[in-house]
Amino acid sequence: MKRTRFAPSPTGPLHLGHAYAALIAAERADPGEFLLRIEDLDRERSRPHWEAQIFDDLHWLGLRWPEPVLRQSSRQEAYDAALDRLIALGLCYPCSCTRADIRAATSAPQEGVPAQGPDGTIYPGTCRQRSMATAKATDAIRLDMSKSFKALSGNANAFCEYGPAHSGVHILTEDRLATSIGDVVLSRKSGGAAYHLAVVVDDAAQGITEVTRGEDLFEATFIHVVLQNLLNLDTPSYFHHELIRDEAGKRLAKRDDARALALYRAEGAAPQEIRRLIGLQA
Predict the structure, then answer these.
(1) What is the CATH number of domain 75-242?
(2) Which of 247, 243, 249 is closest to 278 using CA atoms?
(3) Whose CA is closest to 28, among 176, 212, 155?
């Protein structure tokens, strides 16, 4: 049975882009199962009223899902266990670098133009030689991507993509992982799990068989397949869909309140009109 999910963060109102992502996930699941997950790792910005509005907006669109929903705020024990496994494999190191430190390191004349990866500027490896024995409570924990590639089992280093822009089988290579993605953060300085670790652990826990999400997250999939391999988790298939953009071609964000679903609802729009606006058949 195919199982998909929609995983919004309760940090603002859902907009047209969210509606598109949720409806695509539900349609890709049919006749299987569509799940809702609340990604509330950002404790400072997550709010109960935004979560309540997520439920209201999705129900208004006609979507239904099994209860209770999974909330990342209740999953720290699972994330810690996964991180401990990666540390035990010798694949992690502590990092004390700030964003300013990274900008300074990558802006040196000999470095040239800083390379950009899924998480922004690719980490230059400043703390890579540190051991976990030197870790402090204020450190982030990073994954050594070159070491991780060498630890991969040979029969699980690829994923199938069904989205329109990248359809096909994609193979992991050390060059792509080390130079185009870099050593990503798995645990933040606050001690909370970072997105890449949490999403992999949660997709496996929920038995997700196909991950549907925006094409802006395509490159992050290579990170997720590495983590799935190292943690002995199944790799789902992927469907990265196009993004809903404004008139200037900029993708919608939560600050685009003019396109918030709640506003369309308040103005008397019907769910069928939302489908028309995002290019889906009513």
Answers:
(1) 3.40.50.620
(2) 243
(3) 212
**What tens digit of pLDDT does each residue of 265-279 get?**
999 999 999 999 999
Using DSSP's 3-state secondary structure scheme, residue 143 falls into strand
Residue length of the chain: 282
Q: Where are the domains of the chain?
A: 1-74+245-282, 75-242
Residue 138 backbone class (left: φ over 0; alpha: ψ -120 to 50; beta: rest): alpha
Residue-wise pLDDT for 114-166, tens only, equals: 789 999 999 999 999 999 999 999 999 999 999 999 999 776 789 999 999 99
- Tokens 């193979």 sit at which residue? 171
> Which homologous superfamily does the CATH classification assign to the domain defined by 1-74+245-282?
HUPs (3.40.50.620)
Give the rounded distance of the alpha carbon of 104 from its chain centre. 27
Answer yes or no: are the C-beta atoms of 1 and 32 closer than 8 Å: yes
Give the containing element (helix H, strand E) for 152.
none
Has this prediction a pTM greater than 0.85?
Answer: yes
75-242 shares the fold of 1-74+245-282: yes
Whole-angstrom Cα distance, residue 262 to residue 255?
13
| Phi and psi angles of residue 93, each rounded to the nearest 5 degrees, phi first | -150, 155
